[in-house]
Amino acid sequence: MAKILIIRFSSFGDIVQTRSVLKPLLRSNVVDQVDWLVRKDLEGALEGEKNISKLFCFDRKEGLMGLIALGLFLRKEKYDYIYDAHNNLRSFVIRHVLSFLMMTKVIIRSKERMKRFLLFKLRINKFPKPYKAMESYWLPLQKFFNLSKELSPIDWPIGLDIKMKNYVDGKIVLVPSAAWKMKRWPIEHWKKLVELLPEYHFTILGGPEDHFCEEIREVDPARVNNLAGKLSLKESCVMAGHCDFIITGDTGLQQVADLSGRKGLSLMGPTAFGFVTMGTLKTLGVDLDCRPCSKDGRGKCIQDVYQKCMVEITPERVAAQVRTDFPIV
Questions:
Q1: Global pTM?
Q2: Relative to the CA of 148, which of 98, 135, 195, 205 has its CA 20 to 30 Å away?
């Protein structure tokens, strides 16, 4: 049996998508130990994952010399395989330090840079439509291991405590924020959605910098709990991984809900690589020739209406879909 190191430093959503390969690897009858190298500030996205034997963290503050030192330290593990699921300069350095003069087989996930160039510079889209990034982490491993033929949802490894359970049972979890503003559903739409669904209760998840979430709570404080900035990354993942229903844009918590097979709505706008895979989240979007225009929400909007692809996903449409997919009994 073999041991493998997965290298995926960031981002939050990509780490969650890469988690989808853990169970297939351990069921392959080839691998019996999976270790992971992640960026230290994102280790919360992997906390509680029982399919990872050893979790190693890299602090960006340590720089290149720290990265090399970490690679030298990890050489003692004598990995049979290294899966570079990140494929950037840092992972290039670490995989070469680890594999130099070793019998280690290196597997690299392609970023398909030519296709990216064609899409984002020339507006020629050669990617599958929709592009399911979770599958792109899984496919490079197939020729090395006898993996199952398709991905399936997995239970989030950490369960809800009683307090968390009260925030999600029978409620809709809202994830209004995202790393880049262009892929956020407008704040006024979130507020209108709460007004349109007076019979529902909501819990908001977000980070400490997402102060705008309080505006949504103020629409109806009796029905809306705002937990933005009050939970750790691990706790937010637990709630997204066990909620009854979630409404989210292209975020890391969307990927948590997708991987965990939760029901909900995915509001997709400018981004190319955040589409869900498992089939339990329903994607809502608008058909515009300019979509997708960004890999992660950065860049400029060319439409006369800023964020037209998000603005035209109306609160009325979302509310109607909620009542269809998550009716109150």
A1: 0.94
A2: 98
Phi/psi zone of residue 37: left (φ > 0), alpha (ψ -120 to 50 degrees), beta? beta
Amino acid at 97: V
Kind plus residue range of the DSSP H or E element containing 6: strand 2-7
Q: What is the DSSP string of 240-290?
A: HHH-SEEEE-SSHHHHHHHHTT--EEEE--SBSS----SSSEEEE----TT
Indicate the domain borders of the chain. Answer: 2-141, 162-325
Phi, psi for residue 202 in degrees, rounded to 5: -135, 150
Q: Which residues, other chains included, contact 295 with Cβ-Cβ below 8 Å and sequence gap of 6+?
A: 116, 120, 271, 272, 273
Model confidence at 148, pLDDT cuts 50, 70, 90, reads confident
Q: In this prediction, what percent of the chain has a pLDDT beyond 70?
A: 100
Q: Are 127 and 115 in contact (CB under 8 A)?
A: yes
Q: Give the pLDDT confidence of 257-308 residue by residue, as tens digits.
A: 999 999 999 999 999 999 999 999 999 999 999 999 998 899 889 999 999 9
CATH topology of domain 162-325: Rossmann fold (3.40.50)
Q: What is the pLDDT of residue 329?
A: 79
DSSP state of 185: P
Residue length, the chain?
Answer: 329
**C-alpha Rg value of the chain to the nearest Å:** 20
Q: What are the φ/ψ torsions at residue 32 (nearest 5 degrees)?
A: -125, 0
Q: Which residues contact 68 (CB under 8 A, 6 or more apart)?
A: 93, 97
Looking at residues 244-255, what average pLDDT do you find? 97
- How much is the pLDDT for 147? 84
Residues 6+ apart with CB under 8 A from 69: 62
- 2-141 and 162-325 share one CATH topology? yes
Question: Which architecture does CATH list for 2-141?
Answer: 3-Layer(aba) Sandwich (3.40)
118 in Cβ contact with 124 (< 8 Å):
yes
Q: How do beta strands 202-204 and 245-248 pair?
A: unpaired
